[in-house]
Design a protein that fits this description.
alpha/beta; FAD/NAD(P)-binding domain; 7-stranded antiparallel beta sheet; 13 helices; about 20% strand
Amino acid sequence: MADRIGKEYDYIVVGAGTAGCVAAERLSRDGRHSVLVLEAGGLDNWIWFHIPVGYLFAIGNPRADWMFRTEAEAGLNGRSLAYPRGKVIGGSSAINAMIAMRGQAADYDGWRDLGLTGWGWQDVMPVFRDIEDHFLGAGEFHGTGGGFRVEPPRVSWKILQAVADAAEQMGIPKVGDFNTGNNEGSGYFHVNQRRGRRWSAARGFLKPALKRQNLHLETHVLTDRIAFDGHRADTLHCVQGGNAFAVRARAEIVLCAGAIGSVQILQRSGIGGASRLRELGIDVVADLPGVGGNLQDHLQQRAIYRVSGAPTLNTMYRSMFRRGMMGVEYALKRTGPLTMAPSQLGIFTCSRPGIDRPNIQFHVQPLSLDKFGDPLHDFPAITVSACNLRPTSRGQVALRSRDINDKPIIAPAYLSTEEDRTVAADAIRVTRRLMSQSALKPFEPNEYLPGPLVSNDDLDLAKAAGDIGTTIFHPVGTAKMGVKTDGLAVVDERLRVIGLSGLRIADASVMPSIVSGNTNTPTAMIGAKGAAMILADGLR
């Protein structure tokens, strides 16, 4: 970066994760604007970033993961969780589940109804279509030619088909597409892959765009803080390889560092709750108490069932011969278990009667392990994880100190509301009902977690949820988009940081409420929509 110290760019994008890759591609597309992308991680030059099953090796590996942890969580009976975030271009899209999921139409209409003009389902649908290259072809719900390739899974499991049959016996219909606005049903997740290879945001958006003369990428750059000329953001102070430098934006700085990273940069820059900033010895630039608050995440109850009579990855992976054959199949055909997303089968349903739209999501996996980074169990089993799609618990992200290398405080406050504890208990009951259906009887499912000693009593199930609950890696909301009267709002409906100019946030942190499904595709949409707003406003 030495040759660029002091150099100016029209736009500087901080973070080459999902949103940053998309935003950078859009901002540089017409060639009129110079764009610099600053990424704190490295390049995706490791094989396990590209073979889909590589998430097993990437999560919990400091080469690929920032290795964050939550604080001890009361709702999880005092446990602290690993909190994976991608440490590479493509961000978490380089290590995630690859699931292409938008959520429900009502999620976005709910944002619109908060007064956020332009964020309803019909407003965001064209953006979703524009960013994808979908195997179903162009039509009402899908598009082609975009950067995110979407394909069906390239491996099937007999036991997962039986789980889908069991769901149908419970009255949950089988569906072929979860992305039409109402995702109720069971089916196989569509995935961000191209011919059996992971298709991250870096591969789909950033790398092709780097051929442009007006787009530049710098990796291993830690962004310390934003400097202001009055109330206008114009300079970034950064560190690369132990060397400090500054770079200036002529037009705008766009934070795309995610629900964790964007908060750290904002707070180090003097943007956040004034009292907390002063405690850390940081001069207050903008008193926005919502910075770092409103943290939402999907907590899953990872129920595990031993099975028999059907292969699972547990038993296949323990055989040297079968591992070898998996490798051969992948090398020759780009099919088989090495193409496997962490979760293959999805089920969206209601935790109890009387709920107007699905509020729990199952991720069903033909494998089991104690936690990501640990070895697979040495017995055949499947994981049937149910998460509350719209939790009411709200946590926070905060600086631990001003030190750029200090990891942040992450306190999600899981299961801190009675409603969330009720949904968690009900979700375990639904799981047990699902696994007791006749379609699964040939496979003799036997509950391993939470275990047969846990009764169906509310208190027992709520405690069990705290024992087996873990993050599904969907932190959002920590720089909330809101109207002027919202005391927790950090950005307005055009993603401009309130009270400042020259600074926007375009990543998952701006979601006012979490979407009812996996969050990577909505984050890409926010990056694209944010870039369009920036370009439109720049022409006024």
